[in-house]
């Protein structure tokens, strides 16, 4: 299957007076599984639909395989799109739904039959070819929608929240299937989701959007470990954010919180900033004070099975701390005075 890279340059799009995409720049490599992640209203779907050619024509350029498609109609772009709602034809069998796009392209009937069979085998549904859509489960309908799209051999596969209508366990199964299918076909794929776990577990790289602007692009690990700003830090996983400033004394950098507590920063970490981001798993609770430990008080405790999650008041903030649970070990009780030992090796100053 052909695979194309996508380059987007300075893309702007407005609905009436409201600018929804405010200068998007992006490079997606051929064969990459790329996610657009962001909260509701951040512009993910609008950006995806612009690539497909739906909606108002944006300003700027969208290159697919090096060719600017901004002025092209959707059906001239060689992209395939799968929607959250599946959009199957209710009056057509599975086989006819998958054949639909091929018939539109006036492909010979014998070739259509072969391609439909291959497409259905790819998604494991060859045995249900004669069923009608309303005789299928949600997951099966989504597979038909995928098969219908990939048989047309697009250069780019666009997925708009394709798993949102499925229940939680099926979503996990389907996201693995999606990734397996994408790897097998090597298709350049963009996956729109507001679910960080879905983006983390599938994508090679992702763009985090907020307010029509890309906040950061990188692998899931890069974005989690080195968020570029507080929005990304907060959006990917739980972030404890303490306010203060960095001080350097005798070559040693420290972060001094607004409450006067200090946290030594590791060598080489001298970044200036007024916030320090600590992940819940990078803090250890202890009864006694110590170097790099903040004094705090337990506000709340939740048993999550493998972990105990504490909410602690310390350093001028409410801090989430996850401690691994071991049977028989004492827990810290709400109301108790505790000390939070922060591992600043993995902390980020912003
Ligand atoms: N047809 C339209 N007319 C006017 N405004 C629109 C239209 N479509 C989207 N918008 C607005 O554009 C902004 C971005 O919408 P978009 O659907 O791209 O966000 P999203 O990040 O995909 O959100 P969601 O996850 O809720 O779908 C929103 O503020 C939305 O209200």
TrEMBL record:
Pfam families: ABC_tran, TOBE_2. It comes from the Bacteria. GO terms for cellular component: ATP-binding cassette (ABC) transporter complex. One of its GO terms (molecular function) is ATP hydrolysis activity. InterPro entries: AAA+_ATPase, ABC_SmlMolc_Importer, ABC_transporter-like_ATP-bd, ABC_transporter-like_CS, Mo/tungstate-bd_C_term_dom, P-loop_NTPase, Transp-assoc_OB_typ2. Residues 6-236 form the ABC transporter domain. Keywords: ATP-binding, Nucleotide-binding, Transport. Belongs to the ABC transporter superfamily. This is Iron(III) transport system ATP-binding protein.
């Amino acid at each position: 299957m052909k695979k194309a890279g996508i380059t987007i340059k300075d893309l702007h799009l407005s609905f009436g007076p409201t600018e929804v995409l405010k200068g998007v720049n992006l490079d997606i490599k051929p064969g990459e599984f790329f996610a657009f992640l962001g909260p509701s209203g951040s512009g993910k779907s609008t950006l995806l639909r612009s690539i497909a050619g739906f909606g108002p024509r944006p300003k700027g350029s969208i290159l697919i395989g090096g060719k600017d498609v901004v002025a092209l109609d959707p059906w001239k772009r060689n992209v395939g799109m799968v929607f959250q709602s599946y959009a199957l034809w209710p009056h057509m069998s599975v086989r006819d739904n998958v054949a639909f796009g091929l018939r539109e392209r006036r492909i010979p009937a014998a070739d259509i039959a072969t391609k439909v069979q291959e497409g259905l085998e790819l998604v494991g549904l060859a045995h249900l070819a004669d069923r009608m859509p309303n005789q299928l489960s949600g997951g099966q309908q989504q597979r038909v929608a995928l098969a219908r799209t990939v048989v047309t051999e697009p250069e780019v596969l666009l997925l708009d929240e394709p798993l949102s209508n499925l229940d939680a366990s099926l979503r996990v199964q389907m996201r693995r299937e999606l990734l397996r299918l994408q790897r097998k076909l090597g298709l350049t794929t963009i996956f729109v989701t507001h679910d960080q776990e879905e983006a983390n577990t599938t994508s090679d790289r992702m763009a985090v959007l907020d307010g029509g602007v890309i906040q950061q692009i990188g692998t899931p690990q890069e974005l989690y470990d080195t968020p570029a700003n507080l929005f990304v830090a907060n959006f990917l996983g739980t972030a404890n954010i303490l306010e203060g400033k960095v001080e350097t004394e005798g070559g040693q950098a420290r972060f001094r919180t607004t409450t006067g507590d200090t946290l030594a920063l590791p060598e080489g970490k001298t970044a200036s900033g007024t916030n320090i981001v600590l992940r819940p798993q990078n803090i250890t609770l202890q009864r006694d004070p110590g170097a790099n430990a903040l004094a705090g008080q337990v506000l709340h405790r939740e048993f999550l099975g493998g972990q105990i999650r504490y909410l602690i008041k310390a350093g001028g903030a409410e801090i989430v701390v996850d401690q691994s649970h071991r049977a028989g070990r004492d827990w810290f009780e709400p109301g108790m005075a505790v000390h939070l030992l922060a591992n600043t090796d993995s902390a980020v100053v912003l």
